[in-house]
Design goal:
Blueprint: H1 3-77
């Protein structure tokens, strides 16, 4: 085997490795896109859940304030 044949053999081997790496990179890009979609969906759901908890807390505070203000108002104006 001459140096030129050896060079061509090694070059072909590297070309095959590069093609496989390109395919792997393409698949990883697809997986990354899908994972990003899942992460965004999860963040949206978590944000909605936090919003509901916040509304529930405000409703509790408003009811508590009403429970304090109404008896005081009745006591004052009675």
């Amino acid at each position: 085997m001459t140096n030129e044949e050896l060079y061509q053999l090694v070059k072909d081997g590297f070309d095959q490795v590069n093609q496989r790496l390109d395919r792997v990179e393409t698949r990883l890009d697809g997986m990354d896109t899908r994972l990003r979609t899942v992460e965004n969906g999860r963040s949206e759901l978590k944000g909605k859940q936090n919003e509901i908890v916040g509304i529930r807390n405000w409703m509790t505070i408003i009811c508590a304030l009403g429970a304090v203000i109404i008896p005081i108002s009745v006591a004052i104006f009675k």
